[in-house]
């Protein structure tokens, strides 16, 4: 059914996909959208901050966790781990990939295998780095915590690892489970740097709320950590995971200077700012 948009003042519908990038591919919408959002990669950031209002109970979870574990840190790193394989759970190759990404990108320091024989005295005081891990499973944060407890970091910095919950499996539409998820999304958005999992809407919302350009962990293949382990996103915008697959756009979606294919989904689309984007 074809609708004349000039005769329809409001159109209300429900979806579980972030489809905003597709609207920028409609020529008649582009002028008005450009007026509303001069910086195109901030669309979700502004919409989410205006429209998502957690309840007092969720804000309580956020503020208690932030004050207890994140507020005193000199630097905060968020690591969001979502495993889509079946069965899911803890995998050593995913842990290896997380370490390879965070240490290669200087987000976390290396760990000495043993205590150094000589201690170099410097004028710089050790930094406290808080690492917030969100995952259904506790093993990823436990491995990180043990690693930085058993051996000193190469920089002398103190690494504190915290995971708010370990639900073990996704409990769709269970109120308390969903409240914990939203609280953890907000906590991730309050970090200075963020590492997210491939094609995860959980990570997308966190990066958008926080205005953060994440490092995205590539999806492992054949239970092997990929090389390179991660890529820096070109914008803070979420990916439209399922770009149009029907009609005249079925074969190839024509991108624009401000709508590009996603780093973690070859058929997905995301908004970028032309002045800043790098070709994918």
Automatic annotation (TrEMBL):
Can you name one GO molecular function term for this protein? Answer: glycosyltransferase activity
Cellular compartment(s): Golgi apparatus, Golgi stack membrane
- Record-given protein name: Fucosyltransferase
Q: Tell me which species this is from.
A: Camelina sativa
Q: Which UniProt keywords apply?
A: Cell wall biogenesis/degradation, Glycoprotein, Glycosyltransferase, Golgi apparatus, Transferase
Q: What role is this protein assigned?
A: May be involved in cell wall biosynthesis.
Instruction: Specify the enzyme's EC class, one word.
Output: transferase
Q: A Pfam family this protein belongs to?
A: XG_FTase
Among its keywords, does the record have Glycosyltransferase? yes
What lineage is this protein's organism placed in? Answer: Eukaryota, Viridiplantae, Streptophyta, Embryophyta, Tracheophyta
Enzyme Commission designation: 2.4.1.-
Where is this protein primarily located?
A: Golgi
What the record says about family reads: Belongs to the glycosyltransferase 37 family.
Q: What domain of life is recorded for the organism?
A: Eukaryota
Specify whether Cell wall biogenesis/degradation is a keyword of the entry.
yes
